[in-house]
Design a protein that fits this description.
Helices cover 29% and strands 24% of the residues. The chain starts with a strand and ends in a 7-residue tail after the last helix. It contains 8 helices and 10 strands. The strands form 2 sheets. It has an 8-stranded mixed sheet with strand order 5-4-3-6-7-9-8-10. By secondary structure, the protein is an alpha/beta fold. The relative contact order is 0.15. The radius of gyration is 17 Å and the shape is globular. Helix 1 (20-28) packs parallel to helix 2. Strand 4, helix 3 (66-77) and strand 5 (85-89) form a beta-alpha-beta unit. Specifically methylates the adenine in position 37 of tRNA(1)(Val) (anticodon cmo5UAC). Residues 32-121 form the Methyltransferase small domain. It holds the Pfam family MTS.
Length: 242
């Protein structure tokens, strides 16, 4: 269980637990707009963080794994944001298509994604962990098709990935007629002397700014225990300890 200031995440039945990098994405992303989509919601964390910051938005949280979707539904139902967030247990590749009977018009102002990213790494004996961490069920090519189909032309897409996978996604996203290009980035470190371990990237259907310079954020001071002032300021609306 992980308690935040306005909601609680139960996570005993999900493969992916609450982690600092996902919380940074939820706090850093601009979640403005009327309709938001959380792809691969897991416990419902990002959807609930977005609901807290945007109380007028309607948020769809899509999760392939049935057990995880059930726990997300319980977390949403126990929160003050139950009327804002809908949980869907379905592959994102067919989400809305089956409901509408055809390819819908782009409907989302903002899409949040903490996608699986491992390709050829060692597998866990736990199938749910494999599904959460490996790209078998959601390769980047499929993810891009979905985002291009559902994101409004004026919308933004916010993604969390390790640096090599982030670079590969940026290259793939820039190809084709519906090119998506970065306009904001945040590089995340455990502390200032540790290497960057996550890229948080915001995409849109527009040319990348010529002066795009990624921000950098360290979670901890050099002692590895004390949270940095920047991390505390970002997560203060959520973490009970700040």
């Amino acid at each position: 269980m992980f308690r935040f200031k306005q909601f609680t995440i139960q996570q005993d039945r999900t493969a992916m637990k609450v982690c600092s990098d996902a919380c940074v994405l939820g706090a850093w992303a601009d979640v403005a707009g009327n309709r938001l989509l959380d792809i691969g919601t897991g416990t419902g964390l990002l959807a609930l963080m977005a609901a807290q910051r945007n109380p007028t938005a309607q948020i769809d949280a899509v999760e392939l794994d049935e057990v995880a979707a059930g726990q997300a539904l319980e977390n949403v139902g126990a929160s003050p944001f139950a009327s804002q967030v809908r949980v869907w247990n379905t592959p994102i590749q067919t989400y809305l298509n089956a409901e509408a009977g055809n390819v819908p018009e782009p409907v989302y102002d903002c899409i949040l994604t903490n996608p699986p990213f491992y390709t050829n790494s060692l597998r866990s004996p736990d199938k749910a962990v494999n599904r959460a961490l490996h790209t078998d069920d959601l390769p980047f090519a499929d993810l891009l098709v979905v985002v291009r189909r559902l994101l409004r032309l004026s919308g933004t897409w916010w993604v969390l990935l390790p640096p090599p996978e982030s670079d590969r996604l940026c290259q793939l996203a820039a190809k084709g007629e519906q090119a998506l290009r970065p306009f904001r980035q945040l590089y995340l470190r455990h502390h200032a002397q540790k290497p960057i371990f996550r890229h948080l990237t915001a995409f849109r259907f527009a040319d990348a700014p010529s002066d795009l310079t990624p921000q950098q954020l360290a979670i901890h001071e050099l002692d590895g225990r004390t949270y940095t002032a920047e991390f505390q300021a970002l997560l203060q609306p959520y973490y009970l300890i700040f």
